[in-house]
Design a protein that fits this description.
By secondary structure, the protein is an alpha+beta fold. It has 14 helices and eleven strands. It binds zinc ion (ZN). Zinc ion is lined by residues 51, 55, 131.
């Protein structure tokens, strides 16, 4: 297959970005909408506003949510009515070719013409409060989580974030005016990208989108993604939270902030390198835990590294901590292993067969974090150019950095 991530990019007259790929013979249409605003755009004292809009906007398509979902199901496709993250809100659908115009009409209506009224807001509040309850068993859990986030994100752009769902107090205070204002500011064609995978020719596709509600003119502008954090100004700290719970084994989670100067592909190689080293030391050599893992999350302005060891023998508590720190330091002694991990990563990347859904979600993710997409070749080049020196530099960022550790014991 040719490069799966080569798209045709068009901007409609009203400013809407359309990222499309024509796949001849494709029977269904896969569509993803990225609204370039999320919890990061929540005003102070109105946490959860972006998420609230995501919940309520689809009520403006003229049909009930369950009816929309059923219609898509019945046609053999599906609809996903929203996910809010820090920097974007996304919606998706898949339908047969012949239903495309109707589906666009649906989504177009609620993405461009929603009106929020008092009654709908009141009806939705209990649902959102329940979602809060699903995440946090009690208010104290939420408060603890906020202390953790604030400790970790202090002086960064994420310091103001109170979670995607928001605080209970803020959710209760949100009015239909707040929702409308947020919607009018960010749900504009200029601040939206649509990804379409279909057998339609580009010209036909653009015509169909332009004549749907998505072609409507609205004033607005594209938000600007935050700049990479200046790590000179981020004071180091290491904070440990000890929790006592009714568990029979220990749990440790260590979060670190990392600067955004390394490309994502390079950071992914580091992620695998350290995960494998940790796993070998903690499980294969010492047999003190069954799992050890490093995850690195992209926060646009910086990365967050999360080392997670879910279950270990309590008597090994201090050894575990030492092994984590040693493993990161010893990255510098593992050049051969780096060569191997890099080769594995590139080979897996080359061999991976993307489904249409996979291409759609990758494109949406790239648009969310970068506002542009990269070709598979560009992504592969990042992996190829990654050097062992990069690994040493990333591991050095763990020293004197900002970290937060949660240690759970019985
Ligand atoms: Zn929700």
């Amino acid at each position: 297959m040719k490069d799966p991530f080569i798209f045709e990019k068009s901007i409609l007259e009203n400013g809407l970005t359309v990222v499309s790929k024509q796949i001849p013979g494709k029977k269904r249409v896969d569509v993803g909408f990225v609204i370039h605003a999320g919890a990061y755009q929540d005003p102070v004292g109105k946490s959860g506003l972006a998420h609230f809009v995501e919940h309520l906007a689809p009520h403006n398509s003229g049909l009930s949510i369950s009816q929309i979902l059923k219609n898509f199901d019945l046609a053999g496709g599906f609809a996903e009515l929203g996910e809010t993250r820090f920097f974007d809100t996304s919606y998706q659908f898949c339908c047969p070719l012949e239903n495309f115009e109707d589906s666009l009409d649906f989504f177009g209506k609620f993405l461009m013409e929603a009106l929020f009224d008092k009654k709908a807001v009141l009806n939705e509040k209990p649902i959102i409060i329940n979602e809060f309850g699903e995440k946090y068993a009690c208010d104290r859990d939420y408060k603890k989580h906020m202390i953790q986030l604030q400790e970790l994100y202090r002086d960064t752009i994420l310091a103001k974030i109170k979670g995607v769902v928001g605080s209970k107090k803020d959710i209760r205070n949100i009015t239909h005016h707040d929702l409308q204002e947020f919607y009018n500011t960010y749900y504009t064609p200029q601040n939206m990208s649509v990804v379409v995978l279909s057998s339609f020719k580009k010209e036909d596709l653009l015509k169909k989108i332009s004549s749907s509600p998505l072609g409507k003119k609205k004033s607005g502008k594209r938000i600007v993604l935050p700049e990479p954090a200046d790590f000179e100004n981020i004071l180091p700290s290491d904070y440990t939270e000890r929790r006592r719970n009714r568990v029979s084994s220990g749990m440790i989670q260590v979060n670190h902030l990392l600067p955004k100067k390394f490309p994502r592909g390079t950071v992914q190689i580091f992620e695998k390198l350290v995960s494998d080293l940790l796993f070998n030391k903690i499980r294969e050599e010492k047999r003190i835990a069954y799992q050890a893992n490093l995850d690195i999350i992209d926060h646009v302005s910086f990365y967050e590294s999360i080392i997670y060891i879910p279950s270990f023998e309590l008597k090994s508590k201090n050894i575990i901590w030492r092994i984590i720190m040693e493993t990161i330091e010893q990255v510098a002694d593992n050049e051969e292993f780096f060569d191997e991990v890099k080769k594995i990563t590139i080979n897996k990347f080359n061999l991976y067969e993307h489904s249409a859904e996979g291409i759609l979600s990758s494109a949406m993710e790239m648009l969310s974090f970068n506002h542009i997409t990269f070709s598979k070749k560009e992504l592969r080049d990042v992996l190829k150019k990654t050097t062992f020196q990069d690994m040493i530099e990333i591991s050095a960022c763990y020293k004197n950095g900002r970290s937060f550790c949660i240690l759970e014991t019985p």
